[in-house]
Amino acid sequence: MEPNKVSGILSIILGLIFIIFPLVSSGLVSIMIGVSLLFLGIASILTEFSALNIIIGILAIIFGLLFIFNIDALSFLLGFQFYIIGILMILIGVAGIFAGEGVSKIASILIIILGVIALGLGGFSLTQPIFAAVLIGVALITQGVRLYVAPKN
């Protein structure tokens, strides 16, 4: 079987797991990110005893422990990403409205509207971790279908 089809099937299965078990998958992602940060912090401290490495190591260990025991990393990171994308889209839309010829004003207004929607999704995903897991599940299924039906290169 082609690698794209295998990746597509695995992506669809993972997406379904995220949708069917959003709390478990969201918590698992948070724990995996926390453990990764914990190891990063330890490695940073042990690599070189410079002030910068020790500070980075301590911060990574603190955030790692927070993600393992307290914060839902998935909704936090997804919400943060939506905020950044929303702000950038609004800025690009405003720049498009004030730009000269060659830029569609309607497209710029639509980009601003999508930016506002992205900001709303960011706030919603921060307050509802289940939403973040389901949204990632839908994205994984969409990507999996695209990989599975993509023509062979």
From TrEMBL:
Keyword Membrane (UniProt): yes
Positions in coiled-coil regions: none
Keywords noted in UniProt: Membrane, Transmembrane, Transmembrane helix
Domain of life: Archaea
Keyword Transmembrane listed: yes
TM helices/strands, residue ranges: 12-40, 52-71, 77-99, 106-124, 130-149
Protein name: DUF308 domain-containing protein
